[in-house]
């Protein structure tokens, strides 16, 4: 990519991040182009679809989530690792309004620009679940698809203004449904 094209690309991403933070995933591509002071055709040349734009926006965050899961896999306590991962996921889900619905739709669509990132998140969470199950600290009757569905449901719920204030409590309920002995720290947090 030429230097000027790379600069344009980075500028569009920075503006898109701001617009999406303000308006969620339904932010207008036209609004992003206008605020970036580029034509819609320039925006679409870099990001031909909304999903392609979100893939570029979320790539760093999703890579960091996957890296965190890799680091947690070597921790001493598989149940605490899984619980930490779920907290990281929730923080991510809360950072971009509407992203969870987009990821849930992309999760089973190999043609989606978000598919590879979703698959990496799914795989990382499934590995942490398997490790906790092997230690007997997570339900044995669930798999990675079930965990991803619960993570998505929690992410969607806390994205709703009426449920957002109860995010910690909802997190505890989901963690209690997955882990056979969720940490007492989170029980105390949820009780507040």
UniProtKB/TrEMBL annotation:
Q: Determine if Transcription regulation is one of this entry's keywords.
A: yes
Listed InterPro entries: Homeodomain-like_sf, HTH-type_TetR-like_transc_reg, HTH_TetR, Tet_transcr_reg_TetR-rel_C_sf, TetR_SbtR-like_C
Keywords, A to Z, come to: DNA-binding, Transcription, Transcription regulation
UniProt GO MF annotations: DNA-binding transcription factor activity; transcription cis-regulatory region binding
**Residues covered by the HTH tetR-type domain:** 6-65
Top-level taxon of origin: Bacteria
Q: Where DNA binds (residue ranges)?
A: 28-47
Known SUPFAM superfamilies for this protein?
Answer: Homeodomain-like, Tetracyclin repressor-like, C-terminal domain
- Tell me the protein's name: TetR family transcriptional regulator
- Species this chain originates from: Rhizobium sullae
